[in-house]
Automatic annotation (TrEMBL):
One of its GO terms (biological process) is DNA recombination. It holds the Pfam family Phage_int_SAM_5. Keywords: DNA recombination, DNA-binding. It comes from the Bacteria. This is Site-specific integrase. GO terms for molecular function: DNA binding. Belongs to the 'phage' integrase family. It comes from Rufibacter immobilis.
Amino acid sequence: MEQQDRKFPYRLCVVKTSNNDLSKRWYVEFYVWDENKGKLVRKQDFSLNSYKTVADRLRRGQEIKREIDAALKAGKIIKKVDAAPAPAPVAVSPAPGAPEITVDSTLKEAISFAVKIKTGSLSDRSGSTYRSIKNILFSWIEEAALEDLRLGDVTPGIMSRFFDYLKLERKVDNITHNNYLLYSRAIFNLLVRREIIEKSPCSSIKNLPEQEKSHVPFLDEQRLQVKEYLELHDPQLLLFCTFMYYTFVRRSELRFLQVKNIQKKKIHIPGYIYVNGKKTRVSKNGKAETVVIPDGLENVINELNLRNYPADYFIFGQKGQPGPKHLGLSYFSNKHILCLRELGLNDGQTLYSWKHTGVVKLYMAIKDIRKIQQQCRHSSIAMTEKYLRGLGLFDNEEVQALFPAF
């Protein structure tokens, strides 16, 4: 055990190589003083397992050892949870009421600051995602004994260890990894824009390859089977599916749909609305948009007299009918799962399959990609083409039908 005239003891890193066996987990082990427990605690870093050769793992192990050993010798400990943070010497662009953040602030302080700023202007769901990312980052920071790491000392190598941790310890898939990377970049980019740091430590970290999402529409017989079941057992869920089928509107947007949004020939989707005095984002990009009301949906709207309810009522209110209070985000998804389970349908369909089914039906009827783009509210034709290919639609039918015989 080395102390070197320090108040707190520590043990330097040891790279555990499992006798250079690549089939086993390697790790870097060290001991750091924990003020909460009043003793040395063992910590392990498994990030070197992302490397596939003995030489690369040995090299990365020595890099991690140098970083952690230097931090231990500089006085790194795990501080008490209630310890007051050191005052920041210089404030840079603080938000009103926010803590002062500089390069000398800890990484945890900087993340908390950025997440607080980001969530102040986002929907409840997006804000919740940022808070989840923050909690996972904090868990990793504590496990890696980086509580005292200065924001100015955060490097791409250090952040790479976080993403190694996600893959190796939390076993996240590539899509989830890339989502974490997207939100982490947003956190550090905010600090860059406020001139607190010069460059994001996540900017050089690459996305992992993703398998393109599989969109599963309903077959005709399945569509009729679900429709008949819901007519008897859950008319409100049937109405929700009907709106999604005809309008391609997202479930998060549908739950905030109000009577006043149903216009003569179009449905208005607001960017934001106020719910219980709180500004709440409705559309994905926060911009007001419209979609066409097809005749089939118009007939349903008239049959149920939906335009006759008070203008500020939510179409999908409590007690199975329009009302002053909207339902929760997962309400219809959960009921839809139970419906499919009851019918024994397990071919991969979800609530969003009603949108996919509507797109398939409309494309087969009109073969006009521009009109599909408009109803889907895609920002580009390329986005629509990718979506249609995911549905197995965008085949070259002329080549198939008109190719001359051999």
